[in-house]
Amino acid sequence: MLAKALKNNDLIGIVSPAFCEDIKVIDDKIDTFKKLGFNLLLGKHLYSRSGYFAGEAIDRASDLMNMFENKDVKAIICFRGGYGSINILPYLNYSVIKKNPKILCGYSDLTTLINYINKKTGLVTFHGPMVNSDFNDEQTLESLKFTLMQGYSPYNIPFGGSVCYNEGNTTGILAGGNLATICSTLGTPYEINFNNKVLLIEEVNEYPYSLDRMLSQLLYSGKLSKCKGFILGHFTNCTVENYSKSYTVEDIIKNILVPLNKPIITGFSFGHDYPNLTLPIGSKIKLNFTSKYIEIMNNVVI
């Protein structure tokens, strides 16, 4: 199921399903986002606070549902991540979402939201920048606009400077995002269906041993073996000062992922750094190691 393509001056709904933010930061980021050429409708609880959340879970869910139900809203872009998206999932009306397909875009903690909505409804969602992102990065902005506004036919994304392992063309359905968030849903109704998926994996501010632990959890729970391949993005600030008692991120990839003998792209531009390219969750893709493209095999909007 696909949403309608975004157009200049369309109305975009802005919601915060996870962490709250300071009023000045919200105002500044909203002012910047307005300059991209769209009209904005702010969620009722965008400025709310309940501890570290942007309001109670039921209120954050209400904001999201209101955007899906509002016929004038053409797309929904989340303000920021953090933590808390999982808590709104029990309050969402998935039949309403299915009847009102719209662009939904976010990343980080929103990994849970964009993957579960796709799983429940079949709606292609988008792993991409949020309102608090830096749109001075041209590739990030161009990718967002192209994908949401011109993604009505198949297209290709070059590997760029990615390092690849187990090269061999493969196709699958795109899923995943933030590693910690993926792992946090295991054993819940909201975990990703890993069967025949090309899994996106990125992370920020985690020590190498934490990455090892989380990837090992996916390995020993049998999730990684179900995937068709892996696209690894930014691993921002996932370092230590002294590697005499630590593996590097590259070491961990070689130790855990490479032995699975599944195609792997590393260093692809998405996640908690720039560029942060927009990628369609739930879309059929091909990892083409011959042409060095990720082929988006179907249109992602109509």
Automatic annotation (TrEMBL):
Keyword Protease recorded: yes
Gene Ontology molecular-function annotations: carboxypeptidase activity; serine-type peptidase activity
Boundaries of every LD-carboxypeptidase N-terminal domain copy: 12-128
Gene3D superfamilies per record: Class I glutamine amidotransferase-like, LD-carboxypeptidase A C-terminal domain-like
Key words of the record: Carboxypeptidase, Hydrolase, Protease, Serine protease
Keyword Translocase found: no
InterPro entries, A to Z: Carboxypeptidase_A_C_sf, Class_I_gatase-like, LdcA_N, Peptidase_S66_N, Peptidase_S66C, S66_fam
GO BP terms, alphabetized: proteolysis
One Pfam family named in its UniProt record: Peptidase_S66
Active site: S108, E202, H272
Domain LD-carboxypeptidase C-terminal: 171-287
Family membership: Belongs to the peptidase S66 family.
Protein name: Muramoyltetrapeptide carboxypeptidase
Organism of this sequence: Clostridium intestinale DSM 6191
